[in-house]
Request: fold
Amino acid sequence: MKYDKADVERRMQGAIESLKGDLSGLRTGRANTSLLDPVVVEVYGSMMPLNQVATVNAPEPRMLAVQVWDKANVSAVEKGITKANLGLNPMTDGQTVRLPMPDLNEERRKELAKLAGTYAEKAKIAVRNVRRDANETLKEDEKKKEISEDDRKRLEDEVQKMTDKYVADIDTATEAKEKEILAQ
Reply:
């Protein structure tokens, strides 16, 4: 197995993308349409993501509106949102489901900030695992005489620099989310 820098970078970037997805699902005091991304709805006999049966928008800073395309699916959308356990209370108005954003109390804010830290740690572990895999590949390449010891050391430094960069990106994204959660 040959060392592939593009593959290492792609896998580290994947950890960051996963983290950003996790963080976007954390509720701050403001309405954010990505909050409903994990919601799945049972319609037409199967489970579908909410965004495939309705349009989600934020008409006000503290309100989400879900415009359901098919009137027959309104109650299924309500059920899906309730089942997602996001702490939101759906109110139906015709084909629109309104979701007022409740205020977060101090304790809940701290829990969410701690959860953001947990997500960040998972992402860092993923990046470090990619680094470990890359370094093991480099050692195997050296054993097979495909690269020299100097090349291995140089490439390990390159992998470490990538790791440091992605860990810093994780910290930056997490700090921004924690600030957003705690600022009220």
